[in-house]
Design a protein that fits this description.
The complex is a heterodimer of chains A (about 750) and B (about 190).
Chain A lengths: L13 E4 L4 E4 L5 E3 L9 E3 L5 E3 L19 H28 L3 H16 L8 H16 L5 H8 L3 H14 L9 H11 L6 H17 L8 H15 L6 H8 L3 H13 L7 H6 L9 H43 L6 H26 L4 H25 L8 H17 L5 H7 L7 H5 L2 H12 L9 H27 L21 H6 L4 H14 L1 H20 L20 H11 L8 H9 L9 H5 L6 H16 L1 H17 L1 H11 L14 H5 L4 H33 L10
Antiparallel strand pairs in A: 1-2, 2-3, 4-5
Helix pairs in contact in A: 1-2, 1-3, 2-3, 3-5, 6-7, 6-8, 7-8, 8-9, 8-10, 12-14, 12-15, 13-19, 14-15, 14-18, 15-16, 23-24, 23-30, 26-30, 27-30
Chain B lengths: L10 E11 L6 H7 L3 E4 L4 E6 L4 E6 L3 E7 L2 H17 L7 E13 L6 H7 L4 E3 L7 E5 L4 E5 L4 E6 L2 H17 L7
Antiparallel strand pairs in B: 1-5, 1-6, 2-3, 3-4, 4-5, 6-10, 7-8, 8-9, 9-10
Family (chain B): Belongs to the TBP family.
Pfam families (chain B): TBP
Keywords (chain B): Cytoplasm, DNA-binding, Nucleus, Transcription, Transcription regulation
């Protein structure tokens, strides 16, 4: 201001000399200002003749106030800590980054990320290592360097999923959209590691083409890019006549053998794999494939559909079969050739059995489906299998052989084919109807049957083949068991409950829909309890022993008097820093909820109003009616006197707090009344002791009056409040009411 | 609720997690020794009890808090929880069934088409995130209904949310987004 107009002569021409830091009036020559604060950079010569600028770096996101060393020590502690964190972080980033061979630009970017993270307080509760690694990986992703998260986890020896979690969180919080990983990025790096020598570039190119092809064939979604790269590199190496085994590749690429094999198989399934090397390099197939997992699922669905169809058709064909069966049986009886010696005896026994089996079979046929159908289907599969072989051997019809899947679809046809062969010979007819039971005649069917016998026996249900007796019985058994199983299933489901729920009132257990009997099954009876107790004791002996020892130890220590209670972790109390007493109290109360019965909002309001001066409690004021001011004044004086003593003030505050607790309801109800007076929520904090004794009338009124007189006393009280707040923070715990 | 398109999507609920309190202290050792299908873990301090009828597994703490998992519907979970409480009553504890709350519902759903995850992630940043190195699915979190959807490239998705209604809503919300990024089918 003074530099505009000279004080002595009034001249406006002022010369400000920056170098000397003085302002002089050119008119009269009087010095207006001396020692102007200059904002120039000063240089100091350091050791070795290096000159450096004098000054400190003040962080833009630190506390707003300049660090006052000494008086405001707690503020500078906070700032130093931040600087320390950043420094430490930078150091770690440099260290880790150099191990990854990242250039300086990347490291700086990483450090910037780290600063952002620290300013958003995301480092709390996380290891700095993890955070640093995540920042570095973020940089790698945004820059597109060929570094994997696995590399980082290798260096740090940390689980990659933990790092991944941190990374994802940081990316989300910092709103950084890392571009998706492209496997093409990793190829050159892996190729280099595989040591192809001069031809590295060519091999990389080939591998790149392969990877791109894989991408088009949708092999790369949901997969680790390193796996794809491994497969591509392996193929590329082989294409260029390098001998790289699977083991070499997996050691470089860091996936396991199974994964690599799987990728190779998937690639094999694509049409591209059919091309020759030259063709591949030149031609790019237009067609794209579905992803392999998708095709696998489709495959499954198809299988299921086929099975359903088959089951359905089975039902249809069953009827046909049974009548054919009868016909064939009669035919066979007629045209039975002479039996071989061994089986002659069997023949007589089995026939009735066979008939029995057949009849018992017809029953289950009528029985409900479910497992039976599947069993039937399975049996049919096996029959068909066998049939196929037989057909092939005998007639040379190979088209239906071996294709397990098509077999189902062609099942009915084959059956008919089998039936068709009735004309060809009795043996084949039996083959077609094998499921119905073993026939001795089949043995006679010919040597080719015997050739098929071992397969037959391997067939799970073994109905056809060598020992017809043996096979007939198992089938009957199986079917018998099936029937009984069905029975048990049904009974089981009947014991089930209908879930009949109603809203149960809190505390009351609604017993509807709960079967007590079944629940009792869950409880062991006495004998069982004993047994279990024994078992459990034996099993958990170690644990029980430990517990006992611990107890004994504690007991002994108690006797000796050296019993150290487990030290309760005390939360460090950061001293509250605030400009005014009001603020201090606010912050303190925020941090430490002294009592759940206190309405903190009211407290805060009170503070923002009259700065903690004396006067009534708000509850008292709520009932405010104008009372004799004298009483009020007296009460106030009383208060003041009391408040002069710091300790008292302390207790006041504490007492007030506890009293507040009791007066909560009044407080709440009084909110409306509060608005009456200009000075709203008074400090309950400074509830006069008088109120404790004679609660309602006098102090309330006094409070009203006091409130108005408060402002005068503000300054006085402010100091006291200040101190008392701190002290309260310091020796909190004296909640007992001290009635004055 | 089914999808908002012509064909109905089957949303199959596979797991419902619920918690409730018995308002009384439970002696875990008694429960462990007198109940069938019980696993007692004294180191952790809880008892695992498995019920057969609604097939659920319950973790019981001595404070009386119980977590039930494995149910296939909200009603089932409630029924299972009540049976459990009844069981504890029979064992002699003064059980009161209170504060029953379904905490989490997991459902799976299968889209009739495959999904291109990278496009899906690009279109929906930052709500969606996809890290193939870590997990083969893309995660899509809907904040306001508090549901998380994991999208796999085969078209199947798993949805987790605080209740069945939310889960259905989430599927409806995400369906159009997935439809955009579907993979054209060849073969």
């Amino acid at each position: 201001m003074s530099s505009r107009v000279c004080r002595t002569c009034g001249g406006a021409d002022i010369d400000v000399d920056q170098a000397r830091g003085s302002a002089v009036c050119t008119g009269c020559g009087s010095v207006l200002e001396d020692n102007i604060i200059v904002s120039e950079v000063q240089f100091v010569e350091g050791s070795g003749g290096v000159s450096s600028a004098v000054g400190q770096f003040v962080s833009a996101d630190g506390p707003v106030k300049a660090p006052l060393l000494g008086s405001g020590f707690h503020t500078s502690v906070g700032k130093e800590s931040r600087a320390q964190t950043l420094q430490g972080g930078k150091r770690q980033i440099q260290h880790l980054g150099s191990q990854l061979q990242l250039n300086q630009h990347c490291l700086d970017t990483a450090f910037n990320f780290f600063k952002m993270v620290v300013s958003k307080h995301l480092t709390r509760g996380r290891k700095t290592e993890h955070v640093i690694a995540a920042c570095l990986y973020l940089v790698c992703r945004t820059e597109g360097t060929p570094h994997m998260l696995l590399d980082l986890s290798d260096l740090l020896q940390v689980n990659v999923y933990i790092l991944g979690k941190t990374f994802l969180l940081l990316a989300r919080e910092l709103c950084i959209n890392a571009p998706a990983i492209d496997p093409c990025l990793y190829i050159p790096r892996f190729a280099h590691m595989l040591e192809f020598g001069v031809k590295t570039h060519e091999v990389s190119m080939t591998a790149l083409r392969l990877v791109q092809r894989m991408k088009r064939d949708w092999m790369h979604t949901g997969r680790r890019p390193s796996g794809l790269c491994g497969a591509a590199l392996l193929v590329a190496a082989r294409m260029h006549k390098f001998r790289r085994t699977v083991k070499d590749v997996i050691s470089v690429v860091k996936v396991c053998q199974t994964t690599l094999r799987k990728r190779l198989t998937e690639f094999e399934d694509t049409p591209t794999s059919q091309l020759t090397i030259d063709e591949f390099m030149k031609v790019d197939l237009e067609q794209e494939c579905d992803p392999p997992s998708f095709t696998a699922a489709q495959h499954k669905v198809k299988m299921q559909q086929l099975e359903h169809e088959l089951a359905r058709k089975l039902d249809e064909v069953e009827g046909e079969i049974s009548c054919y069966k009868d016909e064939i049986e009669t035919e066979l009886e007629k045209s039975r050739p002479k039996l071989r010696g061994i089986y002659a005896a069997y023949a007589k026994e089995i026939d009735p059995e066979g008939v029995e089996v057949a009849s018992s079979l017809s029953e289950p046929e009528a029985a409900p489906e479910g497992e039976e159908d599947e069993l039937r289907a399975a049996a049919d599969h096996l029959t068909q299998n066998f049939l196929c072989q037989v057909i092939q051997e005998e007639e040379g019809r190979g088209q239906k052989m071996g294709e397990g899947l098509e077999m189902e679809g062609a099942g009915p046809e084959r059956e008919e084919a089998g039936l068709d062969m009735e004309g060809a010979g009795p043996e084949r007819e039996e083959a077609g109807l094998d499921m119905e039971g073993a026939r001795p005649e089949r043995e006679e069917a010919g040597l080719d049957m015997e050739g098929a016998r071992p397969e037959r026996e391997e067939a799970g249900l073994d109905m056809e083949g060598a020992g017809p007796q043996r096979q007939a019985v198992p089938l009957a058994d199986i079917l018998g068991n099936l029937a009984s199983l069905q029975q048990t299933f049904q009974t089981f489901s009947e014991t089930g409950e209908k879930p009949d729920d109603e809203q149960s009132e809190s505390g009351e257990l609604d017993l509807m829909g709960i079967d007590d009997h079944e629940i009792e099954k869950y409880i062991l009876n006495e004998r069982e309890v004993e047994v279990k107790t024994e078992l459990w004791m034996k099993q958990n002996e170690e644990y029980l022993k430990e517990q006992k020892e611990k107890e004994d130890r504690i007991q002994k220590e108690k006797e000796q008097g050296t019993y150290k209670e487990k030290p309760k972790k005390k939360k460090k109390k950061v001293p509250v820093a605030a400009l005014t007493a009001g603020e201090a109290i606010e912050r303190m109360l925020e941090k430490k909820k002294i009592s759940s019965k206190i309405n903190y909002d009211v407290l805060r309001d009170l503070n923002s109003r009259g700065t903690g001066s004396g006067g009534g409690s708000s509850p008292s004021r709520s009932n405010a009616e104008v009372d004799p001011p004298t009483a009020a004044a007296a009460a106030k004086r009383l208060n003041r006197r009391r408040r002069r003593k710091n300790s008292d003030a302390n207790r006041d505050l504490a007492a007030n707090a506890s009293i507040m607790g009791k007066r909560v309801r009044l407080l709440l109800s009084s909110t409306s009344k509060k608005k009456k007076t200009a000075l709203q929520a008074e400090n309950p904090v400074t509830v006069a002791a008088a109120e404790v004794t004679s609660y309602p009338s006098p102090p309330p009124a006094g409070a009203v009056v006091e409130a108005e007189e408060e402002e005068e006393e503000e300054e006085v009280v402010v100091e006291e409040e200040c101190v008392s707040a701190l002290q309260l923070v310091g020796d909190y715990g004296c909640e007992e009411e001290e009635v004055f | 609720m089914d999808s908002s398109n012509d064909e109905a999507l089957d949303i199959i609920i596979t797991n419902v997690v619920a918690t409730f309190r018995t308002r009384c202290h439970l002696n875990l050792r008694t429960i462990a020794l007198e109940g069938t299908n019980v696993i007692y873990k004294p180191e952790v301090g809880k008892v695992l009890m498995k019920l057969r009828k609604p097939k659920i597994t319950a973790s019981i703490w001595s404070s009386g808090k119980i977590i039930c998992t494995g149910a296939t519907s909200e009603d089932d979970a409630k029924l299972g929880a009540r049976r459990l409480a009844r069981l504890l009553q029979k064992l002699g504890f003064k059980v009161r069934f209170s504060a029953f709350k379904v905490v989490n519902v997991l459902a799976v759903c299968s889209m009739p088409f495959a999904i291109h995850l990278i496009d899906f992630t690009k279109n929906n940043r930052p709500i969606a995130s996809y890290e193939p190195e870590l997990h083969p699915a893309a995660t899509y979190r809907i904040k306001h209904i508090k549901a998380t959807i994991q999208v796999f490239s085969t078209g199947s998705i798993t949805v987790t949310g605080p209740n069945v209604q939310n889960v259905a809503t989430a599927v409806e919300q995400v369906y159009p987004l997935l439809f955009e990024c579907q993979k054209p089918r060849y073969k």
